[in-house]
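Quick one - first record:
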Amino acid sequence: MSFARSVFSAGSACTEPSRRRGTSRVAALTLATGLLAAGAIAGAGAAAADEVPQHQGGATATLGGLQTYDQAVIRDGGTSQQVPAGLFEMSVDGGGTLQSYCIDIHNPTQKDAKYQETPWSGTSLNGNKDAGRIRWILQNSYPQVNDLAALARKAGARALTEQSAAAGTQVAIWRYSDGADVDALDPQAEKLADYLYKSARATAEPRASLTLDPPAVSGRAGERLGPVTVRTDADAVSVTPPADSAVSGVKIVGKNGKPVTSAANGSQLFFDVPKGTPDGSAALTVQATTTVPVGRAFASETRSQTQILAGSSQSTVSATASASWAKKGAIPALSAEKNCAKSGVDITASNKGDQPFTFRLMGFKHTIEAGTSRTVTIPLQEDQPYDFTIKGPNGFEKRFKGVLDCRTEGSTIGNKTQPLPDPSPASAGGGTGGDDLAATGGSSATPMIAGIAVVMVVLGGAAMFLLRKKKAPAQAPTDEQ
């Protein structure tokens, strides 16, 4: 254990991608960023739009690093690599601490990366027939089971420390999440990994800690817009009305039309917009303190490896829903969610107006007829960042941004570099060395990459042509889910 800590500090990445793959990924991401910027409905005005990351509610946290771990050995194609394996810790926005294991062995972590509670459908767990077995492992091993003597007896191990228990648990998870040929270096940790791997049974995906469904509604002034239904395991949630409600007169009410300040699972909330209110939009926020269910996935928008929850303190969770209204014409409501099954992002658009709502995205035209709702899947390539804004009537704008991370690397490790002593900074330009973006998660080249993307907004047509020539999109755009 002392050797492990001398080689890898408590923030090491699980592993590092190869330099060759990293270089090609930088080029691909640069082109992809330009393509999506060129496909945006709004150009210079995008910064003023409401930004909607693919976060449907729950906990948002900042990655600290590996806290309890030992060593493991990955074998692939006749080569092997020693890596740290164990528990990460994350600090929850608003208060609380999460413990997690990683589920993408070949992806690096970024220190201080922001993570969001995410459905399995938006991660590499989508389509993984063994995802439920991973949750069983989490429920039946450390830290959920903190009686290490009892855990050692079940595993047939002589004894387990917190470090060896965390390493053995991570190894068992990797075998199911990545299909990896990986063993714990410590023989007792390896016994635990074998026991967990062989004993695991399929269990269901846990429900989100807190969501609002749907996350966007629309209608006419003088009506109650909604309903927006609260979904949570918490006993109660607080309801925060729109920031300018005192001026606009917009209230958040229940089914009985009375203003509400708290709600529970299944509660229906409405935006009560007074008649004569000028065309506009508003948002409500619900918040609670609860434990996040074990097995919830956490994804980062900065290409830091996906995590799966192993433990939670009482933590702050929140969700936001928006409403838009107008006197006449199209009245759109938009929300977005990653769809790994279709390798893209689902844009759900409804129109409560009296005229069609039409928008263009990535060269395709989509029309939502009055009184209808449709889901449009925007196809993306793996690891492709996106940033686009959809405009509507009466100054309506919604901006969606993120990165599609739906698959584990699953490639050889022969050319991989050793993990860095610490995860790379998540902020742009945070690195100071010469490592490329994919290998370290951030470098001095990052601002240049961002600059190229800006240039490619202007040269959108050329960017689209080059990307299509290099590699065709994984899936043609479709109008329906």
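second record:
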Amino acid sequence: MAVTLESPESAGCATEQGELSSRAAAEAYIGGVCFKLGPPTLIGAELEWLTVQGECSAAGPSAAPRPQLSALADALGPYAPRSIAPDSPALALPGGSRVTLEPGGQIELSSAPYGAAAQLCDHLRDDARLLRELLESRSIRTVSVAADADRRPKRLLRLPRYRAMERSFGGIGPFGKLMMCNTAATQVSVDAGADRAEVTARWTALYAVGPPLLAAFACSPVLRGAPPGGWASQRMRAWLRLDNARTRPPVLDWADPIAAYGRWALDVPLLCVRRPDGSAGHGDGAGWSAPPGATFADWLSGALDDEVGRRPGIGDLDYHLTTLFPPVRASGHLEVRYIDAQPGDGWTVPVHVIDALVSSPSVVAEATSIAAPLAARWVDAARYGLADPDIRAGAVALLRLAAEHTATDAAARAVESAAERCRHGRTPTEDDTEHGLDPEPPEAAP
């Protein structure tokens, strides 16, 4: 199981691939590569941090300059991603994690997959410690926050993908650049399942528990540059607002996610089209820009022959799949993307929670039953967090269920502590009331 499908630094320009004969063939291909069938045994995670260079500032944890890319490359040495050091061997850290970089200089560790959550956490914690030591050799610090409250968004990576992404999202509103440059997440990946029935059950559960778990771990009430409004998770607000077609699939209507994901993916507008000349002479991102509103299905059908000059192949479809950002993404495994970056080593708690909630078919079914009434309440969860009584009750119930099914006593204690925190309406950092959230959440549903 690979923990991340997205690796823009290694994506070349174009069409190393077989051909796609029809829409039906493309949908079947997506179902096969996005949902790898087999007994679910593995878990992985991806951690993200904001980065700063220089002295700490009393003004705020991220109130310092973003690091220079050259300094990041020097600090990381043989572990540097090729997005900032093209000749780097891009080695994995000793615990198996690989280092990547987000457009605004956020640094991330993508773990190797492990058979036990405790083992994953041990290796990822060691790799995170080494990463901090490497960065500190060049006076670069990681900041464990989910949203940058201090700095305006600024894109450091100049890859054609990110130029095109910024250009595309910029036509929709402010949230695209904020998401790209000023947010950080904790992501957890688990195997899809042994067969279509188990995939459907696990997929449904991970979406259903999304709003209450989003609220349970929401800790980004301030995001500089975001429009006014009190939100428990400004990071998730950015994702929900930046491009509905790309980030909010209609999963409540999906009886068979393997088939439905393929249909949905083909009808998402193209974010970019890789071109041989896209990296030169197009500083505004026009080199890789796609015709406005055109979908992958349009390209496949021949509707873009004049604009693009060729039909897509499998490599293009693989790349298109990396430009989809739903709350749970199918990447061979199931990638949970709705949890804020947590303070300190707090990321271990959502890792254990997700692991426990998919630990057996019976727990999957119970978690789905608990969360089903909240499954569509993404915006409320991001806005009100635990201030909403129904969402808070759902979060507490899910965390207590998870605590009963964690693999170790230490994990059970940590998850139970998080459940108690949620019961009192406290975020992983401090009480929601101290962040100026909307004081009047919606009334509890009857």
